[in-house]
Amino acid sequence: MTVFASVIDTGALFEVIWVSFAAGVGLTLAFSLAIASASRAGQQRRGGTLGGAIAWWLVTAICAMVCVVAVVAGVTVMLSK
Amino acid sequence: MDADLLLYLVVGVALAFDFTNGFHDTANVVATSISTRALRPRAAIALAAILNFVGAFLSLEVAATIASGIVEADAVSMSVIFAGLVGAIVWNLVTWWFGLPSSSSHALIGGVVGAVLASHGPSAVIGEGLLGKVIAPALVAPVLAFCVAGVAIIVAYRVVGRQRPGPVTRGFRLGQIVSGGLLALAHGTNDAQKTMGVITLALVAHGTLPAENPEVPMWVVVSAATAIALGTYSGGWRIIRTMGSRIIRMDAAQGFSAQGAGATVILAATHAGFPLSTTHVISGAVMGSGAAKRLSAVRWGVAGNIAIAWVLTLPMAGATGAVVYGFSSLFGGGVAGPIVVAVLLVIGLVALYVMRVRQDAVAAAEAT
Question: Do B144 and A20 count as a contact with CB atoms less than 8 A apart?
Answer without folding.
Answer: yes
